[in-house]
Each structure stands twice: as C-alpha cells, then as structure tokens.
Amino acid sequence: MPTKTLQIPTTDGQADAFAAFPDQGERHPGVLMYADGFGIRPVLREMARELAGHGYYVLVPNFFYRHGPAPVIELPEHIGAEVRPQVMAQLMPLLKAHTAERVLSDADAYLSFLTTQPEVGSGPVAVTGYCIGGLLAMRTAAAHPGQVAAVAGFHGPVGADGPDLLSKLTAQVHLGHAEGDMTPEALGELNQALDAAGVTYTSEIYPGTVHGFTMSDTDAFSASGLKHHWDRLLPLLDRTLANS
C-alpha cells in the first residue's frame, strides 16, 4: 500500500498531510478524511490504509498545521482516562482557534490539492470525519455541493451548525452517532432537520458505543462499532463514487 507525507499549500502556509492509495498505477476516487481532535497518528494512518485498500485515494490533512506538524502535541500510544484530561487541556486552545473561517479556507485548499493529484480520478469526491472531524466534513460538503458526492461523520457534533448548513448539502450523507453522545429524542430532531432540508441520508445511533468508538488507541474503542462504521461507509462510497 503506497503512502506519502505531503505538504498542501493553503492561504496560511503549508498543511502537512498523510495519503494512502492503491498500488495499481491507476486513478482512483478521492476521499478527504478528517481526523478526530487528537490528530494524525498511527491509528488514523491505519484507517486511511484500510480505506485505500478498497480502491480510494485517501488524504488526511493535519488541520492543526498552523501550530506545527503532526503530532502537534505529544501523544501516548494509548490515550486512556488517566492522560485524557491533560491531553484535552493542550488541545482545546487549538480547537477553539480553528474557526469556521479557517475550516472553509482550508477545505478549499484540501479539495483543490486532492483533486489535482495524479492518482485521483476526475469525478466527485467524498469527505469523512471523526469527532470534530465529522463537523469539518459536514462544513466541507456544504461549501462544495457540486464537488462532494458523499459525506460521513462518526461520533461528531455534526448538527452543531443547524439547519442552515444542512440546507446546503447535496451529497449523500451517513451519520454514525455514539450512544453516549446522542439520545433517541435528539436523533429524531436531527433527522427531522435532515428531512426538511431534503437530504438523502442515513443517521443512526450505534448500539453500545461511547464518544470516540472508532479509535482503537482510546478507552472508547468498540470493535463492533468500528465494523458498523465500515459497513456503512464503504457502501456509501461505492454508490456515490463508482464513476469517479
């Protein structure tokens, strides 16, 4: 599985990024993958390689690049309960500094870079994200309706921007919520808003999961939750990017 470490030109400098893609000498559909708040690290590289193995060029940008290359802060191999408060205390200022304006400016740069890679096909792309990356994915898809054919968000605050964002979506959507993050009542309200916006979507609570369930280097990890995530993500990409 070929991989690359890349530099993406942005309006504020250079964003380092990780890319994985099939070793077949062909062009493949592009997928922009946003990490969770802990950023690019071995588990994200492994997830990118896993997705690339299904026939996609996967680009994972370091959205904290303004503060340095990934990893922006030192991370333990396992982000357990005993270290999580200290890690989050370091990350929260970076998350707060990543304003909506920066998100959209960076999204322009990431998609422009992704779609001009020689290994990437000429058709539409998909965007996926985890935790805060789920919200970044939704914002990216809403800002690029003609370019993003699919968007998926997992255990993220995907409805934080409200109906205005949802009304701009033309991509097909899958949202996988942690049981610990989303009540059935809140899920109903979000899905009603998606219906009202005319979005083609699936949106569900993954049973027995807590926030961060896809990440195998955290206490939140759920093997069944991660499998459920692949069982939803891969058919979505296959449906929407088959001709890219």
Q: Explain this structure to me?
A:
There is one protein chain. The two termini are 20 Å apart. The mean pLDDT is 96. Helices cover 36% and strands 21% of the residues. The protein is of the alpha/beta class. It is built from seven helices and eight strands. Strands 1-2-4-3-5-6-7-8 form an eight-stranded mixed β-sheet, sandwiched between helices. It is globular and about 45 Å long. The longest helix is centred in the last third of the chain and has 19 residues.
Q: Pairing-aware structural class of the strands and helices?
A: alpha/beta
Mean pLDDT over the full residue set: 96
Percentage of residues assigned to helices? 25-40%
Total beta-strand segments: 8
Quote the distance from N terminus to C terminus. 20 Å
The main sheet comes to: 8 strands, mixed
Strand content: 15-25%
Rg, alpha carbons = 17 Å
Question: Order of strands in the sheet with the most strands?
Answer: 1-2-4-3-5-6-7-8
Total of DSSP H or I helical runs spanning 4+ residues: 7
Quick one: overall form? globular
Order of secondary-structure elements: EEEHEHHEHEHEHEH
Runs with pLDDT <50, length 5+?
none
What can be said about this structure in brief?
With 244 residues, the chain is an alpha/beta fold. The protein is built from seven helices and eight strands.
Features:
8 strands; 244 residues; 8-stranded mixed sheet; alpha/beta
Topology:
Blueprint: E1 3-10, E2 13-20, E3 30-34, H1 42-52, E4 57-61, H2 84-97, H3 100-115, E5 125-130, H4 132-143, E6 148-154, H5 163-166, E7 172-178, H6 184-196, E8 201-206, H7 223-241
Parallel strand pairs: 3-4, 3-5, 5-6, 6-7, 7-8
Antiparallel strand pairs: 1-2, 2-4
Helix pairs in contact: 3-4
